[in-house]
Amino acid sequence: MYQDLLEKKKKISVTGLGYVGLPLALELAKKFSVIGFDINIERVELMKKNIDPSNELESSAFENKDILFTSDPTDLAQAHFHIVAVPTPVDEHKVPNLTPVFKASQTIGTYLKRGDYVVYESTVYPGCTEEDCLPILEEKSGLKVGRDFKIGYSPERIVPGDKVKTLATIVKVVSGSDEEALDVIAKVYGSVITAGIHKASSIKVAEAAKVIENTQRDLNISLMNELSIIFDKLNIDTREVLAAASTKWNFLKFYPGLVGGHCISVDPYYLLHKSKQIGYDPQVILSGRRINDSMPSFIAKKLVQILIQREKSPGDAKILVMGITFKENVSDIRNSKVADLIRELMQYSINVHVVDPHASPNEVAHEYGLTLIDNPSNDYDAVIIAVSHNEYLKLDFDYYKSIMKEEPLLMDIKGIYERPQNENGMLYWRL
């Protein structure tokens, strides 16, 4: 298989061309013949024009690549090594929504041939690939794993917005349904991943490794968030505490904040779901999720408390929220906790304006029913810096004071500024 792929006698397909699938497809297309498949016709048409719909890649990333972009599933019949990189979100009840990965399995199963490989990259719970996806492949294809085709799992580790830790420079975990599958899958990924390959002993181990990476980060941030709530009540600056504690060599430096996006705030629910299925009710993981999900409410209440202390009615207040993407310097607004914060503020009848130089106004309107303004006014009672975009790092306190009324309040959620020695009439607050 590997030699045939290398000599382009056989093709690789990548299903799902989002933040994960597109960079992977283009990287593989440097050495292999690739079919990039996505059900979103508009996205595919943009990619044909060397445009990344996610605004992560430059047009040069598309040049000199052996790749066919298509929204026609019949093109998958040409491929022999299939990679699934579709999103795996949770629904409104925080239950894993595996519809995209199941539909992708059905589509690939329809065109699966003897000797083919199917590798999943989508984040799932341990056991999902073999217990949930494999039966779909076998049913749709009429083939049997091991005898007719092979499967594997290689969790994605894409970091949106990071121009240093790119796909090729991050160690890739791979797994396979047998030793031969593991060897071939490792060779395919190893041909484009310069950081190296880690061979997991089983597909379940690889699945579990992925889901705990972000669960660990979620728990560490939840501890910082809980500490920030405690320290706020004690009138202690959390960032100053962390700076002092970090002087010890083995102190792990995490920071409080809004935990959104499609990874850290989602992956733990996949592990929670599987844990409950097998009869164990997790305590620590669920507690961390509750704390992180409650932070928009905590911040909104804090702002209202300060307004009332300053004898300002929340119903008459006008607030500017700067940034709505889930992290800095990206256009991705999926599962943005800033949107939750805005809704919390609106619950108090506060007039909220929102700006973001990276977010698409149409996407924000469609996803959250919120309107982005082009330019801030100059009569705000408070400004909330919710995302640390590079554009905001260039601003100073004089700018913020210039767009606020008397007794200005600056809430720095991301802690991008040092606490001013002399606030000079402006109250500065940060997590």
CATH class placement of the largest domain: Alpha Beta
Give, in order, the helices and strands: HEHEHEEHEHEEHEHHHHEHEHEHHEE
Give the second-level CATH assignment, the architecture of the largest domain: 3-Layer(aba) Sandwich
Radius of gyration from the CA trace?
24 Å
Number of helices: 14
How many domains comprise the coordinates? Answer: 2
Spatial ordering of strands, largest sheet = 3-2-1-4-5-6-7-8
- Largest beta-sheet characterization: 8 strands, mixed
Unreliable segments of 5+ consecutive residues: none
* C-alpha end-to-end distance: 53 Å
- Indicate the CATH topology of the largest domain: Rossmann fold
Structural class assignment: alpha/beta
Percent of residues in beta strands? 5-15%
Mean pLDDT level: 93
Could you name the key traits of this structure?
431 residues; alpha/beta; Rossmann fold; 2 domains; eight-stranded mixed β-sheet; five-stranded parallel β-sheet; 14 helices
